[in-house]
Write a structure and sequence with these properties.
Elements (H helix, E strand, L loop, with lengths): L2 E10 L3 H9 L1 H4 L6 E5 L2 E6 L2 E11 L3 E6 L9 E7 L6 E10 L3 H19 L2
Antiparallel strand pairs: 1-7, 2-3, 3-4, 4-5, 5-6, 6-7
Protein backbone atom coordinates (compact mmCIF):
# COMPACT_ATOMS: atom_id res chain seq x y z
CA UNK A 1 0.00 0.00 0.00
CA UNK A 2 1.08 3.52 -0.70
CA UNK A 3 1.34 5.86 2.31
CA UNK A 4 -0.42 9.19 1.85
CA UNK A 5 -1.04 12.27 3.93
CA UNK A 6 -4.51 13.58 4.65
CA UNK A 7 -6.01 16.54 6.50
CA UNK A 8 -9.05 16.95 8.68
CA UNK A 9 -10.42 20.19 10.11
CA UNK A 10 -12.19 20.43 13.48
CA UNK A 11 -13.68 23.53 15.12
CA UNK A 12 -13.41 24.25 18.86
CA UNK A 13 -15.16 26.83 21.03
CA UNK A 14 -11.98 27.29 23.06
CA UNK A 15 -8.87 29.41 22.74
CA UNK A 16 -5.86 28.19 20.77
CA UNK A 17 -3.96 28.13 24.09
CA UNK A 18 -6.43 25.69 25.67
CA UNK A 19 -6.58 23.45 22.58
CA UNK A 20 -2.76 23.44 22.45
CA UNK A 21 -2.63 22.47 26.12
CA UNK A 22 -4.95 19.49 25.50
CA UNK A 23 -2.70 18.35 22.64
CA UNK A 24 0.60 18.63 24.50
CA UNK A 25 0.32 18.13 28.26
CA UNK A 26 0.28 14.64 29.77
CA UNK A 27 -2.44 15.54 32.29
CA UNK A 28 -4.76 16.58 29.45
CA UNK A 29 -3.74 13.86 26.97
CA UNK A 30 -4.83 11.11 29.37
CA UNK A 31 -8.30 12.66 29.49
CA UNK A 32 -8.98 12.01 25.79
CA UNK A 33 -6.13 10.34 23.90
CA UNK A 34 -4.31 7.64 25.85
CA UNK A 35 -4.16 5.81 29.19
CA UNK A 36 -0.80 7.30 30.16
CA UNK A 37 1.45 10.02 28.72
CA UNK A 38 4.88 11.34 29.55
CA UNK A 39 7.47 13.62 27.96
CA UNK A 40 11.10 12.52 28.20
CA UNK A 41 13.99 14.11 26.31
CA UNK A 42 11.86 15.76 23.63
CA UNK A 43 9.73 12.66 23.06
CA UNK A 44 6.19 11.79 24.01
CA UNK A 45 5.63 8.33 25.43
CA UNK A 46 1.98 7.30 25.05
CA UNK A 47 0.50 4.16 26.55
CA UNK A 48 -2.67 2.26 25.65
CA UNK A 49 -3.50 -0.89 27.63
CA UNK A 50 0.16 -1.18 28.66
CA UNK A 51 1.52 -0.89 25.10
CA UNK A 52 3.80 2.11 24.61
CA UNK A 53 4.37 4.14 21.51
CA UNK A 54 6.85 6.99 21.21
CA UNK A 55 6.74 10.15 19.10
CA UNK A 56 9.56 12.64 18.71
CA UNK A 57 8.65 16.30 19.03
CA UNK A 58 9.78 17.87 15.77
CA UNK A 59 8.43 21.34 16.52
CA UNK A 60 6.05 22.92 19.03
CA UNK A 61 4.94 26.55 18.86
CA UNK A 62 2.33 27.28 21.52
CA UNK A 63 -1.00 28.35 20.10
CA UNK A 64 0.14 27.67 16.52
CA UNK A 65 1.12 24.04 15.88
CA UNK A 66 2.68 20.84 17.12
CA UNK A 67 4.49 18.45 14.79
CA UNK A 68 5.44 14.93 15.89
CA UNK A 69 6.98 11.90 14.24
CA UNK A 70 6.09 8.42 15.44
CA UNK A 71 9.11 6.21 16.09
CA UNK A 72 7.62 3.56 13.79
CA UNK A 73 6.95 5.97 10.88
CA UNK A 74 7.62 4.29 7.57
CA UNK A 75 9.40 7.35 6.18
CA UNK A 76 11.19 10.43 7.50
CA UNK A 77 8.60 12.45 5.56
CA UNK A 78 5.70 11.13 7.68
CA UNK A 79 4.50 13.26 10.59
CA UNK A 80 1.49 14.07 12.72
CA UNK A 81 0.70 17.75 12.87
CA UNK A 82 -1.87 19.76 14.79
CA UNK A 83 -2.12 23.29 13.32
CA UNK A 84 -4.17 25.94 15.14
CA UNK A 85 -5.73 29.20 13.93
CA UNK A 86 -8.66 31.47 14.76
CA UNK A 87 -11.69 31.85 12.52
CA UNK A 88 -12.06 35.56 11.73
CA UNK A 89 -15.83 35.09 11.33
CA UNK A 90 -16.83 32.93 14.32
CA UNK A 91 -13.75 33.41 16.55
CA UNK A 92 -13.61 29.62 16.98
CA UNK A 93 -10.32 27.77 17.02
CA UNK A 94 -9.67 25.83 13.83
CA UNK A 95 -7.60 22.68 14.32
CA UNK A 96 -6.19 21.13 11.17
CA UNK A 97 -4.79 17.65 11.69
CA UNK A 98 -2.33 16.28 9.14
CA UNK A 99 -1.56 12.59 9.44
CA UNK A 100 -0.41 9.68 7.28
CA UNK A 101 -1.90 6.27 6.54
CA UNK A 102 -2.24 3.64 3.83
CA UNK A 103 -4.21 5.02 0.89
CA UNK A 104 -7.11 2.62 1.49
CA UNK A 105 -7.52 3.69 5.16
CA UNK A 106 -8.10 7.45 4.80
CA UNK A 107 -11.81 7.48 5.66
CA UNK A 108 -11.33 5.15 8.66
CA UNK A 109 -8.47 7.29 9.97
CA UNK A 110 -10.47 10.50 9.52
CA UNK A 111 -13.34 8.95 11.47
CA UNK A 112 -10.92 7.92 14.22
CA UNK A 113 -9.74 11.54 14.53
CA UNK A 114 -13.33 12.82 14.53
CA UNK A 115 -14.07 10.45 17.42
CA UNK A 116 -10.90 11.46 19.27
CA UNK A 117 -11.67 15.16 18.84
CA UNK A 118 -15.18 14.54 20.18
CA UNK A 119 -13.59 12.99 23.27
CA UNK A 120 -11.24 15.97 23.54
CA UNK A 121 -14.13 18.44 23.32
CA UNK A 122 -15.96 16.51 26.03
CA UNK A 123 -12.84 16.53 28.24
CA UNK A 124 -12.64 20.31 27.74
CA UNK A 125 -16.17 20.64 29.04
CA UNK A 126 -18.07 21.17 25.84
Amino acid sequence: MERVSYNIEILFRASTTIVHKFLTTPDCLIRWFCDKADIVDNEYIYSWNGDEQMAAIIDDVEGEYVRLQWDDAESDDEFLEFRLSKSPVTNETILIITDWCDDDEIEDQKQLWINQMGAMKKAMGG
